[in-house]
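Summary for the steering committee. One of the milestones for this cycle was to obtain a three-dimensional model of the protein with guanosine-5'-diphosphate bound, which we needed before selecting residues for the alanine scan. The sequence and ligand used are listed below.
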Amino acid sequence: MTIQWFPGHMAKARRQIEEKLKLIDIVIELLDARIPLSSRNPMIDEILRNKPRIVLLNKADLADPDVTNMWVKYFADDGLQALPIDASSGNNMSLILARCKEILQDKIDKQLSKGMTPRAIRALIVGIPNVGKSTLINRLAGRSIAATGDRPGITKSQQWIKVGKEMELLDTPGILWPKFEDQMVGYRLAATGAIKDEILNVEDVAFFAVKHLILHYKEAFAKRYSLEVGEVDLDNPHEVVEIMEAIGKRRGCLQSGGTVNLEKASLVILHDLRSGKFGRLSLEKP
Ligand code: GDP
């Protein structure tokens, strides 16, 4: 993931998506089910304007199902169909086409009433880096399409990938940038692995994650590290850091002198979080 976060790059990314909008019938907006708003580009409505759109909540296999349902309702209230999916295992793939057809039904009906045979629905996948765009394209295509659009400097002609007979996808997804000026958004993105650890301080990210885990998933958290986690004052940083140190001790994250290396402990916690070791969890609620 080599994305540079300069206004110039953002403007270019936006232009590229706007160019592609002319070619397609519907946008597939891919979000991370664990952090739908934080993984969303804040200018998306402005960029897509009134282009028909479906929201896919990817990595639903890692997210808390109850919270994901709340998000589906949240988007529905906003007039958007949202469908939880899991691109890596292929869960709910057949529903994507069905839902896109529903959204475009008026247009399809019009073509039919004019005696035209509706052509395949043309779609563009858009989303921030690491949200699963390539995985979804490969899954829908039923084969491995080499292109990941994240590498700058690689330009190639646009190609349509057939998804059965009724849908075609542009082979290069639209890459959006998240907005992480808001610290909490940055922490959520970092905790899920959407942005590189180097962008934010790992100890800060792990600190955020531990607070969230204690608040919402305490049992799974305590069990993972065989810790007794009683009443914790989450507003007291010392208490949270003490727990991180206890984890470090258990996991042998020590430095010379026998004290805990908090950075190593933080990496352990974040690795566990990203690989689903605390079970299915969400980091953001509507
Ligand atoms: P892109 O940058 O948007 O193209 O993202 P990728 O398709 O490269 O996916 C980023 C990472 O997320 C990869 O390690 C994928 O295996 C993983 N991934 C993608 N979709 C899913 C999913 O539905 N569930 C899980 N658990 N992992 C996924």
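Key point for the committee: The chain is about 40% helix and 10% strand.
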